[in-house]
Amino acid sequence: IISEDQYLEKALALKAAFWCHSTRIRRCNQTRECICQYFWHRKCFVFDQPAPKNDLERLEELQDKDINPEFQQQVEKFCGHIWENAPPKTIPGGRIITGSLLGKLAETYVDTIRSREVPCLESAVLALAQTVNAAAVKEAVKFYQDLMEQRVKLPMETVEELLDLHSQCQRETLELFQKRAFEEDICSFQADLTVGDPQPSQECPPHLGHHHPLSFRGK
After folding, report:
1. CA 91 – CA 100 distance, rounded (Å)
2. Which of 81, 83, 128, 164 has the most CB atoms less than 10 A away?
3. Residue 75 has what pLDDT?
4. pTM over 0.70, yes/no
5. Residue 123: helix, strand or coil by DSSP?
6. Which residue ranges does the record annotate as region Disordered (predicted)?
């Protein structure tokens, strides 16, 4: 009896190429070599059939109690290994990709392939960055507006007091944007996230009975 990992390594062992089957064997060995070259750390998991043969066609409709218990245990073992040992997925630059972002990245790849173009990681990341950065701008605008509504206590004594509060909220907003945004194409989106100095309206009394809306816009 051999372990699951030993079974995998045995399956990846290169086969001797006899002259009559050399082309087919070389093709199979090329696949094995690629797996060994690109996956240095390998682990094998063997799964039993999740349900009886007659139920496989409607597998998504089955309840948990109808799924093979041994299969469920193997799935838990597999998921536990992933959570404990697999590092988070990143893109060039070290940016961690969440599940939703990975899904969008996959959609970009699929759309590119369907359009009969050659998929490129850099182009896919740039397209993803534009989507993420646009959402980060909207989130930052909302964050700034909420901060000002929470912190502005009317009436205020001087314009300088309002300007100081505006500057503080602006700094916190830009920090939030930079944490949410991708480095790729960040400058063009940050340029759209402009904050103007608040000015009291002509009707505003000396003690700033109300404040003028700030110039804060996003895409």
Report:
1. 14
2. 128
3. 94
4. no
5. helix
6. 198-219
Q: Are 195 and 173 in contact (CB under 8 A)?
A: yes
Mean local confidence (pLDDT), 205-210:
36
Q: Is the pLDDT of residue 8 over 90?
A: yes
Cα 43–49–54 angle (5° rounding)?
160
Instruction: Give CA–CA dist 23/75, Å, rounded.
Output: 37
Tokens 């972002």 locate to 101
pLDDT, mean over the chain: 79
DSSP track, 125-193: HHHHHHHHHHHHHHHHHHHHHHHHHHH--SS-S-HHHHHHHHHHHHHHHHHHHHHHS-STTHHHHHHHS
Indicate the domain borders of the chain: 4-50+64-89, 135-217
Query: In the chain, pLDDT over 90 holds for what percent of residues?
Result: 21
